[in-house]
Amino acid sequence: INLTIAKSATDLLSKPLHHILVDAGVGSRKHTLSLVHSGRVCLNGEIAKDRFLTANLSGGDVVTLDGKVVIPEDLRYLLVHKPRGVLCSMNDEHDWKKELVGQRPLLSSLIPSHISERLGHAGRLDLDSEGLVLLTNDRRIMNLVIEPSGFC
Question: Quick check: 80 and 136 in contact, CB under 8 A?
Fold first, then answer.
């Protein structure tokens, strides 16, 4: 017997506190988990030390970091044509070919820096390939595009 338990709409809109902090541009998942653990994050005025605690911002929950209200970034979506010879990367500081760092044009060079900040690319194209690449700060959409099971 398969039993499916539907989540309430509130549960579907709730996110872990550290995800809310990441979405607001506070830092990486690891960094934001440490902020929650250290007691610097509050949910509705109460110190939140539980890493599994969730909040529903659209439902009225208020998350603060060091007393300041946390507001997630607006979601951005860009479709960019990547020409041949452009590296499908926003930066190449972690490139395994260290001698080429800074010598190849990057995907991020095709758009203004104030727009490309905190955007990631969904998928990759080879250096000698060209085509459309989705740039977004919406990690949920990015995972849907990248994961094979995303559209099933």
Answer: no
Whole-Å CA distances, 128 to 64, 87, 100: 46, 9, 16
Active site residues: 126
Which residue has tokens 């989540």? 7
Q: Which of 49, 69, 89 is the last residue of a domain?
A: 69
22 occurs within a structural domain: yes
Tokens at residue 124, please?
Answer: 């990759």
Please check whether residues 90 and 140 belong to one and the same domain: yes
Reported pTM: 0.64
Task: List pLDDT tens digits, range 34-60.
Answer: 999 999 999 999 999 888 899 999 899
What is the length of the chain?
152
